[in-house]
Amino acid sequence: MLKVNEERLIQDLKELAKIGATPDGGVSRSALTPADVEGREWYKAKIAEAGLDYKIDGAGNQSAILYSNPKTEKHILAGSHLDSVPNGGRYDGALGVLVAFEALRTLKDNGITPAITLEAVNFTDEESAIMGLMGSRAMIGQLQAEHFD
User: Fold this and answer.
1) CA 147 – CA 13 distance, rounded (Å)
2) Looking at the DSSP assignment, which residues form a beta bridge with residue 21?
3) How far, rounded to the nearest angstrom, does the alpha carbon of residue 35 sit from its chain's CA centroid?
């Protein structure tokens, strides 16, 4: 049976929790602040280290991608967000992104090519620092220019 690398996942959660860490064990990584940008760069580097493809869209959503063969136009997405509310929990959002990412790494590590392309997504500004749900709303076509006024 296929199993994720639990130690690697826990290590990633610990590393990410250091970015924007608060004295009480939480994190403060409001969207697009220096701490969030550092977390986003950390995720991008982890994607490269894993040998997965990287994509960033116009809303700043970041994806680790494991392509199917042949490549499919439809993708299955899983993930959450790496930004946080001020003094937020270290696992809120981050767990969703990193569990999805670990699933892709596990498939790749085991030489498994999925039947459909898979993405582990970090959505931008899901915790309302700028407008809330910005990344996911942009992805499904619900953002308009007036939302940025």
Assistant:
1) 33
2) 27
3) 15
Q: Residue 29 and residue 99: Cα distance in Å, rounded?
A: 19
Cα–Cα dist 17/102, whole Å: 16
Q: At what angle do helices 94-109 and 34-50 cross, to 10 degrees?
A: 10
Question: What tens digit of pLDDT does each residue of 94-142 get?
Answer: 999 999 999 999 999 999 999 999 999 999 998 877 777 888 888 888 8
DSSP secondary structure letter of residue 144: -
* DSSP annotation of 119: E
Burial (Cβ within 10 Å: 0-12, 13-18, ≥19) of residue 63: buried
Of 87, 94, 83, the residue nearest 133 (C-alpha): 83
Q: Which two tokens stand for residue 135?
A: 């990344």
pTM of the model: 0.92
Phi and psi angles of residue 5, each rounded to the nearest 5 degrees, phi first: -85, 95
Residue 146's identity, in one-letter code, is E
**Nearest-angstrom CA–CA distance, 45 and 56:** 13
